[in-house]
Amino acid sequence: MTTSFTRRTVLASMGAALATPAFLKRANAAEVTLKLHSMLPAPATMNTQFFEPWIEEIRTASEGAIDIQLFPSMQLGGKPGQLPDQVRQGICDISWTLPVYSPDRFPVAETLALPFMVTNAEKTSVVMHKLMDEFGQDEYPGTKTLGFHTHDGGKFHTREGLIHTADDLKGLKLRAPNQATGKLLELMGAETVFFPVTEMVVGLSNGVIDGCCLPYEVVPAFKLQELTKFSSAPAPASRGLYANTFSMLMNQRVYENLSDDLRKVIDDHSGIALSQRIGRQFDTFEQMGKEVVIKQGNTIGEIAAEEISAWREIAQPVHQAWIDKLNDRGLDGAAILNRANELLDADQPA
């Protein structure tokens, strides 16, 4: 009797173990660990308020099967412009990249980085995702695109004096956020240099530049409120000066090697909904950054809508040059710019 009971007990226990191996495995250990490479320092809001919660959401949705490790400050080596290749080559599994750091390589993704191609971050991010779906499907071979977004429109942050008109830009040495915006600033008389945002503190500290053109959200991560004293922003009804574009990428082989249910977790946490969410978050980051500038006691000024309209006319050759560049790549440059403007002007991008 005792032997029979023991045998039944053992068999029942074995049966229970065999019936729930996936649950036990996912409850106790990750099936796959992914490396996410970020160019920004660990305290940056993109890391703490987007990546970390997103990572936890994926861990929860996968019942612990997917673990994503965040490596900030380019800890896996290389420079920000190399991040798309690092994803494709498998140096990292996921990354968040700026197309403008590899100029002309991802022309459709870079299009919304032209001057005056931004409303707010949420809407412009949705526009970018739709533009990439329609025209940019082939730009990132070897990767699965998880999302696209922009930040809010850039502002001038200068060491001495506000910017009210184009005349105020003459002779200023400014860090340009990308090549196209740099060309516009040069047309208005500024001297521009371009280097990644991660190198900007040195440029401001040693006097190589008099200021920079950036959204407020970047300010706290690099303590720019201590290095500049004046911020100048377009009037609220105007298009923003510029917005850099971002692409969130995953290695295609790694994605395809996931089980069906784990691929679904990634799919459920990517796509246009993710693009819109990041954009919305960047609008929140923008207000947070502005509050830091205000708290520092810096002076904030407004560039009148009429002045911005005049600047948009000055920017027309920059836009035409981009259309020609897209045409040279076998794309329909005018159609891409027209579609982008149509989506930006619509009440809801369709």
UniProtKB/TrEMBL annotation:
CDD domains: PBP2_TRAP_Dctp3_4 (cd13665). GO terms for cellular component: periplasmic space. Pfam families: DctP. It is found in: Periplasm. Keywords: Periplasm, Signal. InterPro entries: DctP_fam (IPR018389), TAT_signal (IPR006311), TRAP_DctP_sf (IPR038404). GO terms for biological process: transmembrane transport. Residues 1-19 form the signal peptide. This is TRAP-type C4-dicarboxylate transporter periplasmic protein.
